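Please review this one:
***
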Amino acid sequence: MATTTALRRLWAALTRERTVAGRRPRRGVAMLLVLVSLATMSAVVADFSYNQEVRLRLAMRERDLLKAQYLARGGVEMGRILLAFQEQIQPLLDFATETLKLPLPGFTIWQLIPLDSDLLRAFASGEIQESLGFAIDRDELKQKVRKVVKEIREGDSTSTPEESEQAAPDNGGFGAFEGGFRVDIEDEDSRLSLRPASDQTASAAQKKQVLRYRLLALVEPQKYNFMFEEPDGNGQRLDRFEFIGAFFDWVDADRDRVDARLPERFPADSMGDEDATYDALDERYKPKNAYFDSHDEMRLIAGMDDVKWKVFGPAVSIHSDGLVNIKSATNPTVIEGLIAACAEPPLMFQGVDYFWLQDRVNFWQYIRSEGLALGMGTVNPDGFVAMLGIPSLQNFPGIQVNKERCKASMKTKSEVFTMRVRAEVGDAVRTRVVTLRIFQGRPEYWYFHEE
C-alpha cells in the first residue's frame, strides 16, 4: 500500500504542470518547427526534381536531334548513291524500252524506288531477298556484318577491343537504329531553267530570247487569265509580259525595266525604271540585280503572289541548264509549257478549249506510265512529238508541231537534283535540303540548308 502511494506521488510530481517565472510555457513550438522544416524541404526537393526532369528531357531531346541530324545526313548519302547508280543503269533501261521495245514504264530510277529507312532495313535484314525467293540465313548475315564492323573498328587506333566486340548491335548492323528517314528527290532538270536570264556571254541575247519564249509559253494558257486580269496579292496588276520581264529585271545589272512585248527588241528595249513597281509596295525594296541564291527568292519578284507561286514556283528552277528532261517531267504546268513551245504556230492553243489541254496532258502522263505496253510510243522527245499529232484516248484531235523547235527544248538525261531528307527520332525532327550535280558519278554540291 505504501509502495503504491509512493509511486502515485512520483508520477504526480513528474507530470505536474511546470511554470517559468509564474507563467505557463508555450506548447507545440517544436511541432511547428518540424512542419515548417518538412514543408521547406519538400519544396526544395520538388524544385530540384523538376529541374532535373527538365534537364533530362532537354538532354534526351538534344540526343534525339543529334540522332535525327545524322539520320538525315545518312539519307542524303543514300540518295547520292542511288543517283550515282542511275547514271549507269538508266542507259540500260532506255535501251530496253526504246530498242528492245520492252513494256517498261517511262520513269527514271529514283522515281521507281521509294528511298526510305524502312526499305533499307528490309534489304539489310534479308526480307526483300527472301520475298524474291533467295535463301537467306539471317544469323549468318548478322555475323558477317558484325565481323566487317569489327575489322573496321580494330583498324581504328582510337577504339578498344571491347568497343570492337560491341561494334555491331545484335539485330544485324545497318537498320538497327532508332527512328527513320525519307528521301524525296526533285529533278531540277524536269523544270524550266531561269539560268539564261543572267547569261553574260556573247550569245546571251539569243539565250534570253529563248527563255522569254518559254516563260511566255508557261503562263500563256487561257486558264491563267484571272491571274493577270485581277489585282494580285500585293494589290498590283501585271500582265503576262510585265510578269515575265520581272524575272529578267531581278537578275540583270541595270535599273531599266525590260519590255518583253517586242521579241525583236528584247532584252535591250526598256520601258522605264524597274524600281517603280517595287516602290509602290507597302514594304518597299529593290530588285537584287544579281542571280538567285535560293529557289524561294523568286517569291520576291514583282507579281509573284501566293497563287502564282503555287502554280509556277514548282515549274521553274534556278539550277538546271535550260532543257527539260522529258523522262522525269511530271508537273502538268511544265508539260503545258512544252506543248505551247512545240505548237505550230507558236502558242496557238491560247484560244483552245481548256479541256483539250487537260486531256492532252493526261494523255502524255498515261503514255509515260502504261502507253509503251500498249504500243503507243516511247518516252523521249520523238515520242512527245508523236503524241501531240495523234488523237487522244478521248478522241481529242492532235495539233501541228514544229518538230525541230520542240525537240530543241527537251532532253532525256538529268544531272542536277534537290534532295529533301526528313528524319525523325521520337519527337525530334531534322530536315536537310541539298542540291547537287552528279557528273560522271561524282557529286558537286551547290546548295545546303538544314531545318
About this structure: The CA atoms of residues 234 and 283 lie 10 Å apart. The first strand starts at residue 180 and ends at 187. The two ends are 95 Å apart (CA to CA).
